[in-house]
Structures are given as C-alpha cells and as structure tokens.
Design goal:
The chain has helices at residues 2-35, 41-48, 52-80, 82-102, 106-134, 138-169, 174-177, 179-193, 207-229, 235-257, 265-269, 271-300, 306-311, 314-334, 336-355, 363-389, 398-429, 436-465. It is mostly helical and 478 residues long. The model is unreliable at 1-10 and 469-478 (pLDDT under 50).
Length: 478
C-alpha cells in the first residue's frame, strides 16, 4: 500500500512539473509577442504597404485586446473552467498567429494581432490561476511563480533577439509562425496533465459589469496608446481617457449593487492585495518604459543595429534568472516586506546607473552594469510581487485574481510608456540647440531618473503599508 501511494504521489508531482513546463512555455510565447514585432516593423511596412499611422496598430491592436479583455476572461475562467478557457485562448492565439504569418494586406495583420491579444487575455490569467491551484503550498508556490516569472521575463527579452534574427535571416512572417508548434503542443498535452477546475458554486457572469469593466479598460488602454503617439491634450487621447473614468465610476456603482459582481469590491479593497497591486502598477510603469527607452537609445544614440541591440539584452535575461533564483530565498530569510523593499531599491539603483549612459560609453563599461543591477532587482521582485498580489485569493476567484494582476501590469506598462516617453521627448526637444545626441541622451536620462523615483516610491509604499496589511488568520492561500 505504501509503495502504491508513493508511486501515485510521484506521478502526481511529475504531472505537476510537466504541466508547469507547458504553462511556462505558453507564457513565454505570449510575452514574446508583446514586443516581437518591434524590430520587424520596417520589413512589414515594406512588404504589406503600411502607412505610418497603420503600422503603429500592429503593436497597439495586441495591447488593446490583451489589456482590455483580461478582467472579463479571468472571471470567465473561474466560471466556465480554467483549463477550458486556457485551451480556447491558446487555440485562438495559434490560429491568429497563422493569419498574421500569412497576411497579404495590412488589415489582415492588424486583425490577426487583435485576435492574438484576445487569445492572450484568455490564456494568461487562466494559466496563472492553474499554477496557483497546482502548487498550494507557500514554498512550492513561490518556486513555481519564480520559474513562471523567469520564463516570462525571458520572453520579453528574447522577443527582441528572436525578431532581429528571424527578420534578418529569414522573413518577418516566421516571428508569428514559430508560435504554432508551441500552441499545438499545449493543446495536446495540457488536458493530460491538468484536471478541470472552476468555481465551487454555480454563478452567472455579471453582464453589465462585464460590459462596463471591459469598456473602461479598452478605453483606458486606447487613450494611453493615443497619448503616447500624440499628446495628452489631443482629443483622440483625452476623449477615451475621460470615457474610461466615466465607465469606471459606473462600473463601481453597478458592482456595489450586483448580486454576483464581476469584481466584488471586497476583492479590490483587501488591503494586502491592494498594496501589492499598487506597487506592481508603479514597478510595471518604470520597467516597461525602461525597456522601450533603452532599445531606442541603443539604436539611435549608441548606433547599434537591430540585431546587435537585441543581443545586448541577453545579459538582462541572465540577470533576471539570477534574481528569480534568489527571490524565494530572500523572502524565506528576510520576510516578504523586507525582501520586496530591498529588491525595489536594487532596481531603482540600476535605473539610476542606466540613466548615466553617455553617447561615447562602451557597452561593457556603460550599458552592462546598470542593465545587470536592474535585471537582478527585477528578478528579485517579480515572484514576490506575484505571491503578494494573489494572497488571500480563494479557489473560486483564482482566475479573477490573476486577471487583476495582469491588468495592473498592462495598465502600468501603458501608463509608463506614455508618460515617460513623453517626458523624454519634451526634455529632448527643449535641448535641441545643444546637438541631437546630447539632447536625446538628456531626455533618456531624465525619463530613467523618473522611473527610478517611481520604483523607490513603490518601495516606500511597501515599507509603510504591506507589513500592516497581513491577511487575517484563516484566509485561504492562492
């Protein structure tokens, strides 16, 4: 009997490990497509005949669907089944990738990117919820989130490298077609590894809340994207942002009276989770903006070619992996609050180092030190932030908790890029009399100093509030 039990236990552990591998590779694919098109945009423009405005929507369509639909699909995963929603999202993402890879007209590529974003919005929160439920113990959950975050961070870094390599050596179409084997493997393997899970009691989807919440997120993301392209005072940016505020107010009013709300207000007001999500918002704003600004700086000021700029990011991925490996150990030894404060301050120090990169600096002496310090701080932060942001999430709302965290990350990233790029541009334009390289460097430096201040503010929020926001006794773990 003991031998049989031991074998069954080993099989269960093996299946969980295999499921984690599949889920992490899918997340790698999804995050890869956040920025994989960046280097390939000029080739897409030449092949398909994009105009300047239309080309931007190859990027924006993905973010609009992904950021706008996360809450809706996260809640649907809880109600309809997390595995089912995940597999549907992966299949949709794979089909859309095929459409993108075979596109012959600009509208086909943009439509494919929008559907890719919708598939990501289905798969990503469902996958994170499945991991949270597969690894219920705090130590094993922290390790699983560390692996998940490391693979996701590698996807963000490798997107630039893979895009440059495939575009230069083959065709931009392969940056989409390489998704197909991963999607197919996930659809085939995951049903054999993970049982279905859903909320324990029957519940209906809150349709008014879903319409208002999704509308608010779509309007917010669209307004932020337009602000990044034009200015905050432009009607095409200000109008959607005002609409987002109106819809958000209506959403709160509806949810307060709904019998089965899409997002219970008590879920959002749970203090420990609220502090962690607030810190995640600040952290995401800084890190998304840093990645964008540094890539532009490497190519336009330091003179790197696209593939060289992508390869320059490889140590960033290595630093994140090292930070991930240290993260669970830091939390176990220091506690959640001190570990997060320390990791945020390390990240802020790295951003300040990067802000000092001058036009005549070499890679090893100028770019690399700040990149490594920032990446280690980022790797230390991500798993602990994920655990903190999902603390107290019940089994019934695991998908919702994951979707809220993903929405916060996407919105923070959109805000960070829109605001900090605008600050960098304004600073540069005010100094053009000093020379273009000098002015661009000053704008880059100023924006990264602001990013460092945002991360330091996140550390202050955690230090002041997280320790007093411990979950009450008996609150279920993720």
């Amino acid at each position: 009997m003991t031998s049989v039990s031991t074998t069954a236990g080993a099989d269960a552990v093996g299946r969980r490990g295999a499921a984690l591998v599949v889920l992490c590779f899918v997340q790698f694919m999804l995050v890869l497509d956040d920025n994989v098109v960046s280097v390939a945009l000029p080739s897409m423009r030449d092949d398909l005949g994009f105009g300047a405005a239309g080309l931007a929507w190859v990027v924006n369509a993905y973010f609009l669907a992904f950021g706008g639909l996360l809450l809706l699909f996260g809640r649907m995963a809880d109600l309809l089944g997390r595995r089912r929603v995940f597999l549907t999202g992966v299949a949709l993402f794979g089909a859309a990738s095929l459409v993108c890879g075979l596109a012959q007209e600009p509208w086909q590529l943009v439509a494919g990117r929008f559907v890719q974003g919708a598939g990501s919005a289905m798969a990503s929160p469902a996958a994170l919820a499945l991991i949270a439920l597969l690894f219920p113990g705090s130590a094993e959950r922290a390790r699983a989130f560390g692996i998940w975050g490391g693979i996701a961070a590698l996807g963000g870094t490798m997107g630039l490298v893979i895009s440059g390599a495939l575009t230069g050596l083959a065709s931009w179409r392969w940056i989409f077609l390489i998704n197909l084997p991963v999607a197919l493997a996930a659809v085939v393997l995951l049903p054999r590894l993970v049982p279905e899970s859903r909320a324990g009691r029957a519940a209906r989807l809150d349709v008014p809340g879903a319409v208002l919440g999704t509308g608010a997120l779509v309007a917010l993301v669209y307004g932020l994207l337009r602000a990044g392209e034009s200015s905050w005072g432009d009607a095409t940016a200000a109008g959607p942002l005002v609409l987002a505020v109106v819809l958000a107010v209506a959403f709160v009013a509806v949810e307060a009276r709904a019998a089965e709300p899409l997002v219970p207000l008590s879920f959002l007001s749970f203090r420990f989770r609220a502090v962690a999500n607030g810190a995640t918002l600040l952290f995401s704003a800084a890190m998304y903006a840093m990645a964008f600004l540094l890539m532009v700086h490497l190519q336009t000021v330091l003179g790197y070619r696209p593939l060289a700029a992508g390869l320059a990011y490889l140590p960033y991925g290595a630093g994140i992996l090292a930070g991930m490996w240290l993260s669970s150990r830091a939390v176990a030894r220091l506690g959640m609050r001190p570990a997060l404060v320390m990791s945020f301050l390390i990240t802020a120090a790295g951003l300040l180092l990067l802000s000092g990169v001058a036009p005549d600096d070499g890679y090893a002496s100028g770019v690399l030190p700040g990149m490594l310090v920032t990446s280690i701080g980022c790797g230390l932060s991500l798993p602990a932030l994920t655990v903190a942001a999902l603390t107290g999430t019940t089994e019934e709302k695991a998908g919702l908790g994951s979707a809220v965290l993903s929405s916060v990350q996407q919105i923070g990233g959109a805000v960070g890029v829109a605001v900090l790029v605008a600050l960098a541009t304004r600073r540069r334009d005010g100094l053009t009399v000093e020379g273009s390289q000098y002015a661009a460097t000053e704008g880059f430096s100023f924006a990264l100093v602001v990013a460092a201040v945002l991360v330091a503010l996140g550390a202050a929020v955690i230090a002041a509030l997280l320790g007093r926001a411990r979950p009450p006794e008996g609150t279920p773990d993720v």
